[in-house]
Design goal:
Strand content of chain A: 15-25%
CATH class of the largest domain in chain A: Mainly Beta
Number of strands of chain B: 29
CATH class of one domain in chain B: Mainly Beta
Helix content of chain B: under 10%
Helix content of chain A: under 10%
Structural class of chain B: mainly beta
Strand content of chain B: over 45%
Number of helices of chain A: 2
Oligomer: heterotetramer
Largest interface: A-B, 69 and 47 residues
CATH architecture of one domain in chain B: 7 Propeller
Radius of gyration of chain A: 15 Å
Mean pLDDT of chain B: 93
Distance between the termini of chain B: 56 Å
Order of helices and strands of chain A: HHEEEEEEEE
Number of domains of chain A: 2
Shape of chain B: globular
CATH superfamily of one domain in chain B: YVTN repeat-like/Quinoprotein amine dehydrogenase
Radius of gyration of chain B: 24 Å
Number of helices of chain B: 2
Low-confidence stretches of chain A: 1-60
CATH superfamily of the largest domain in chain A: Methylamine/Aralkylamine dehydrogenase light chain
């Protein structure tokens, strides 16, 4: 069990508690170690991908990817290296920003194994920016997180860098490719 | 100041992996840049919780929630900020909301700037602003500090420096028009076509009518109708259309019809007439009306001087025309603010003393659910969305 | 017992608790009803009183006033109509601002009975301004508080109005006179 | 836009009472405008808790506390703000502190402005500022994002856009001097007279020396001395003078002497050599040194990939010269950050998982007190005051 979970088990801070069996972490206290949500460098993403104009449509349901698990739970496979508020708890989804926030296009990427097919996928953790902390479903998983000098894999950095505002709101987890070593 | 000999360091290996594989992938990568939108007209069950964030007031929030949704994530629709005890007004005739807020150039210091910010209901994004004289009243949230008149063409902002006045904003052209002094009076209660009334320290009501350019057409002062020392009226009436129902500290109700040019002030009547226990109204937002005109009031027993902000353990429902108590709802937890959702089967939403929102069926009084853990700090006031 | 006290008795919010027998209210939740600290109009105060240059000196100890009670407790007699964070818990005192904050000179006044001599005194509740909420010892007592139209006795108003910044930090309670009716 | 016929309303009656009586009063009214001050040099037992206010980050705070004071109010000395994950540096040679912070013209939107703000230790008031390129690294608090060199004449600010560089500020004239790129490297570890070193992604250390105007005099790259993939060094060494003790994820310690022009990098040694249980360092601020040069480290058992930010259940004390574990302190509650106060009998202060501060006697390991309820939200990093 993660220490963040233990913190909540102890119930030491009244407002900080699990709110459902989803295990989505809620509110205060859990960002104790790491948290600004954020993620290493993939400037390439900006040019390689088409930006969608569609709002709240085509959020990955028909992508052909085998899926399992709950995108509103910190346990969800795509979040293996996330550190921030889950956008799905903030009016967005695991791959869409909440209304009025702006998605960063330069991002950090992680590599997570999809239990549905046993393959490892490249995940782009795009921050949503321009509103203050969503405050819901803080999720921190430090697998393969590295210090800030390893910029492209440090989850202590706020990646609201190419957005109109530097203020961090929440984080998405977009599948953008298959990892070679899977 | 270049350092000679420094080349661009290698990109992370993972990036190379992505590029090498995405073409061959058996699936579509997730699209980039998706942002959710909301409907232009909010469903009847939605509310907006005004979180003044009293411990971090530069980071106030307006949180859009569906009070009818049992799912923790499904009920959270979105959020927009309001800086330093901001106030909110929601238009009905266009998909806009207005936030009057205060900034300093260096967060908590430096030059003060007051702004009326325009939000699109669909995008929850700021779509415009009007800079105001830096005079807006900095108080705990009171709905009657920001009101819309003239079929939502004019926005009125209550100022307190401590001299009191009202800033007038043209909402379609997004333009500051001017300032109307209201010495000795406070708050904004829309009146008639293009006017407003204010409550005055001497127990009278001041009514001001404007022209389309925001200039004063006429002013009128009512007879004194209450005694602020002996039995003050709350500056937070339950509004049903242009009918304002003002509770008083001692537990009377004074209904004022503001639909015409001059306020028509009814005689007071006792809310707890015939009920034992010293029940009085109280709280941060103690009174609201539903779409049918029923008045809901947070009530606490054992009322005395100084209890007028105590949380209510019950909500009493009144028929203001019949001057009758029609129902008593025992709350699950005492509450400090209430709101009703729109429509024929309204929900009663109450900010309880844990600073969570309890949702009741307003008709039966049954507790339906509690909205907790939605990123709030101090959600002091609730707004029925529309 | 005040409802704010009841809130803490219930211990409903973990972080919101009494921390000592002083009964000083701590942290979140207690400003539920009213709180911005602040208080009606005494513009006269600006011209009638000399501003002291002394820092942290002569904080009233030798004023000749008979005193009783604890200025760090919400029960303290001078706080009969206060609504805000007690400056004594914020690095200041009941009549001095914390370092780096600025005292408002236009203030609201209350009338409180001093149990040490049975007389009623006029209290000037000067806010200290220019830093964000102190967050300690929130104290709310609504005796003779009136709505905002009664500006000079409404405790929902922030009185950081003649200060360099409008941001409220904490509140002092200065004795400035004897009430005639005592 | 004057309303005709409005006279200035009467002053409140109470004011008249005051004026009538103050002359006859048997006591001196409380003086007006008193503001407390702090000493120019802070006592050894004081610390500054850096509250990033992660849930309301525009309202970050630096809270000055006396860790030796058992009284709730007595220990709270004051507070100054830091906007959006600010960083702090404290001068020793003059009574100043420096905060690098970020503002937007409309709170959470609008133009971004990065500023180095100068605070007077005595008044806790901002006494100056230098506007910086809006590039400073926005990360969770790391002490080595803002450092002082050249006998505290130059302030260095770490930038990340994501390209990395260092902004140079002259602190006496309060002037921005320029920017030094450090591609592929990060953080600022003061080196020699007027230089700094950074850790690089490839496992080397980059050292840059400046002239008095902040221009680059020389740069030097060390041999690769660690593998960021296999056993990364924390970018948060325990500093004792110019000696930097870097823990690694797997539990080694690498000491680097930065007193000369070139870093002298010692060989790594295993912290938990001979101790069962898979103990590793971890936390937000896992390692600090006391005035005597002893190194304190937050340690957790059962270390594995991804546990490097887990709270520590013990603090281990090392003699880095002898390369020996000299003591183990079992913490009352697991902690995420530690700091030592100055002097011969230091206090060990630890941010525990309740986000309160536990104070221990660093020598005996005895728990002395807990600092709770000091207005904090997320006090992630602690600074020994001076």
């Amino acid at each position: 069990m993660n220490w963040v979970d233990r913190l909540f088990e102890q119930g030491v801070r009244g407002v900080a508690k699990r709110t459902s069996r989803r295990g989505a972490l809620e509110k205060i206290g859990m960002m104790l170690a790491g948290a600004a949500a954020t993620f290493p460098l993939l400037p390439v993403a900006r040019s390689e991908e088409q930006e969608s104009d569609a709002a709240a449509s085509n959020e990955g349901e028909e992508s052909g990817l085998k899926e399992t698990g709950d995108p509103l739970s910190c346990d969800y496979w795509r979040y293996c290296a996330i550190d921030g508020f889950l956008c799905g708890c903030c009016g967005g989804s695991h791959n869409a920003c909440p209304p009025g926030s702006q998605m960063s296009r330069v991002t950090w990427i992680g590599t997570c194994e999809n239990p549905a097919d046993g393959k490892s996928y490249i995940i782009s953790y795009n921050d949503c920016c321009g509103k203050s902390s969503c405050g819901n479903c803080l999720c921190q998983r430090n697998e393969r997180d590295r210090p800030v000098y390893r910029t492209f894999s440090a989850n202590d950095i706020n990646w609201c860098l190419d957005t109109d505002s530097a203020i961090y709101h929440c984080t998405t987890a977009r599948v953008i490719g298959i990892a070679l070593d899977s | 100041m270049k350092i000679p000999g420094f080349a661009c360091k290698s990109l992370p290996l993972a990036v190379a992996l992505v590029l090498a594989n995405s073409a061959a992938a058996q699936f579509e990568p997730d699209p980039l840049g998706l942002t959710r939108e909301l409907p232009a007209v909010y469903p009847q069950s939605w509310i907006i919780a005004q979180d003044a964030s009293f411990f971090h007031p530069n980071d106030g929030k307006f949180i859009v929630l569906d009070a009818a949704d049992d799912s923790q994530h499904g009920r959270y629709k979105g959020m927009f900020n309001g800086s330093f005890v901001a106030q909110l007004a929601i238009a009905e005739s266009r998909p806009e909301m207005y936030v009057v807020e205060t900034f300093h150039s260096r967060g908590h210091r430096g030059e003060r700037t007051d702004v009326l910010t325009f939000y699109d209901k669909r995008s929850l994004a700021p779509v415009g602003e009007v800079v105001l004289p830096p005079k807006r009243a900095l108080t705990l949230p009171i709905k009657f500090s920001l009101q819309l008149v003239d079929e939502e063409r004019l926005g009125l902002v209550f100022n307190l420096t401590p001299a009191t006045s009202v800033s007038v904003v043209e909402l379609e052209r997004r333009e500051f028009l001017g300032e109307v002094p209201i010495p000795g009076c406070a708050m904004i209660f829309p009146t008639g076509q293009r006017g407003f009334s204010s409550l005055c320290a001497d127990g009278a009501m001041l009514t001001v009518h404007l022209d389309a350019q925001g200039a004063v057409l006429s002013t009128e002062r009512s007879e004194t109708f209450f005694d602020a020392q002996a039995d003050a009226v709350f500056e937070k009436p339950a509004m049903h259309g242009r009918m304002a129902h003002f509770p008083t500290f001692l537990g009377n109700l004074i209904s004022v019809d503001l639909s015409g040019d001059s306020p028509v002030i009814a005689s007071p009547w006792a809310l707890a007439n015939g009920v034992e226990g010293g029940w009085r109204p109280g709280g941060v937002q103690p009174a609201e009306a539903d779409s049918a005109g029923q008045v809901y009031m947070l009530m606490h027993p054992g009322g005395a001087e100084g209890t007028h902000k105590d949380p209510g353990s019950e909500v009493w429902v009144f028929d203001p025309e019949a001057r009758q108590l029609s129902a008593r709802i025992a709350l699950r937890l005492p509450a400090i603010s209430i709101e009703l959702t729109r429509g024929e089967s309204p929900l009663l939403v109450a900010t309880n003393i844990n600073l969570n929102l309890d949702v009741y069926d307003a008709g039966s009084g049954n507790h339906l659910r509690t909205l907790a853990d939605f990123g709030q700090e101090t959600p002091l006031v609730l707004h029925g969305a529309r």
